Structures are given as structure tokens and as C-alpha cells.
Amino acid sequence: GLLGRAAAAAAAASRGMATAVLPDLPYGYSDLAPAIAPEIMELHHSKHHQTYVNGLNAALDMYAEAEAKGNTQKMIALQPAIKFNGGGHVNHSIFWTNMAPPKDCAPPEGALLAAIEAEFGSVDAMKKQFAAKAVGVQGSGWAWLGYDEAKARLAIVTTPNQDPCITTGHVPLLGLDVWEHAYYLQYKNVRPDYVGAFWEVTNWKNVGERYAAAGGK
Predict the structure, then answer these.
(1) In a domain, 24, yes or no
(2) What is the CATH number of the domain that holds 125?
(3) Is 25 a domain residue?
(4) 92 annotated to a ligand binding site
(5) Domain boundaries, position 134
(6) 45 among the known binding-site residues?
(7) Is 48 annotated among the ligand-binding residues?
(8) Contact predicate 94/175, CB 8 Å
(9) pLDDT digits (tens, 9 = 90+) for 150-187
(10) What is the model's pTM?
(11) What is the pLDDT of residues 182-208, one digit of tens each?
């Protein structure tokens, strides 16, 4: 609520850095159905993502306090919490924009389409590789279509837990959350069905914008 945001802003001002805030979704909780059920969207956004935001702000507050005291050991000890909660916030913020209501979704086009075809042969071939990687993530994690700036080419990578895509050396273009909280209420243990449904709500326009912003041509 507003009070919470005001308190968070005050804490941020005291440590001189921006406070993480749960982003609004660009669509309603029911707008991705039937691919992703409204109940999952509401829980995933308002509860799970909010928890990462809260955890990141708490860890950053403690980090600023430790830094002010010159407590290097405490600063190092807090880094896993910053990585986990910060990664959760970063990853989900990308994930929400990577999706759109089915009626607003169109296939990849332009420079992004050309890059996909150059790297994978076709969009379908890319989807198959992506799906295989996503289904193959052991435990919790993410599958990504990323951009390798040094090699100027696309790649499909995975990250464990909430590690951000950038930790693999790739700029995130498209991410899929394969934590069970992202699909279990609807798809139970059948992750491949969830991965397949993801393509019905993939916002390729957003992916294309991310590709252009990363320097893709």
C-alpha cells in the first residue's frame, strides 16, 4: 500500500539507493488464461514476487548498514540474499513483460526473426530447444533466450534458483520461470504442458524490443 511504499522510500533515502517496488502488470490476472490460470497469476505476482521485493529491500538495508560500519564480513554474508531476492525481482520483472494476452501476441518478426532463423534454423526449432532446456532444469530455475553481446548471437541458457540471466554472460530477452510455484496449481507435475502453453502468451514484440536494446541487428 501507500504507507508501505512511503516507508520503503524513506529507507531508500537513508541508504542512498533506489528501493525495489513490485511492478504493476501490463494486463489483468485473468488475461493470460487459459495458458496461465488467474489464480496462479495473482499468487505469483502479488505474493511470490512481492516476497522477493521485500527480501531484496531488507538485504539492501542491512548491507548499507554494514557498509556504513565498515563490516566487510557482514557485507559478504549478505550477498547470497541480495543475489537470490534481487534475482527474483529482476527475473520476474522481465517475465511479466515477456507475456501478453493471446489476442495481443504475434510471431517474431524483423531483426529478431532473422537472428532466430540464423542461429536455430527456424522459430519452431528454437522453441523445441528452449522447451527441452526448460523441462530439463533440475529443481527450480529459469530458461532464457539470451543475447551474447561479444559474439553478437542468440543462445538458449538456463539458470538455477533465481540467478539472473546476466550471470551466464547473456542479456535476457525471453525468460520462463520453471519454479513449481509458476505452474503447479494448474499443470501439477507436468512441466512440459506448462512450457508448451507459454508460447500462447509469449510477447515477441517485447522480446524484439529487448533484442534491439541489447544491440541486436
Answers:
(1) no
(2) 3.55.40.20
(3) no
(4) yes
(5) 34-216
(6) no
(7) no
(8) yes
(9) 999 999 999 999 999 999 999 999 999 999 999 999 99
(10) 0.91
(11) 999 999 999 999 999 999 999 999 999
